[in-house]
Specification:
Length: 134
Amino acid sequence: MPTESSGLDLAYDASSAPFFEGAAQGRLVLQRCGACETWMWPVKYRCVHCFAADVEWRPASGRATLYSLSVVHQQYPGFPHPYVIATVETDEGVRFNTTLVGDDVENMAIGSALMAEFDADEQPFTLPRFRRIP
């Protein structure tokens, strides 16, 4: 999301690498329990539902619903002004914070249908952003 380099040396760790590597390839990848089929984020070593250790990374649909959003008017160096922080819930039932892209995102209705998209040129690494499905 920053519009310019912040000078920070940011990196992800091995446990979250499948998420970031999937995003770099234009795919939303999340953890899923092989025992009870619960989807998870953030990274877990055991299922949050049944506590099984059978956790694997799987491609997700990329579809989501807007759960909440906040328009940030405070100016921060390197960030657009204003910008929107959103919580989305994927069709798999996972909620996470992200940003929205497209027109008039500040006024997007809660419950809007969304689709993940990825900018391979984003630095220091690609993250999923979500756009309203018309």
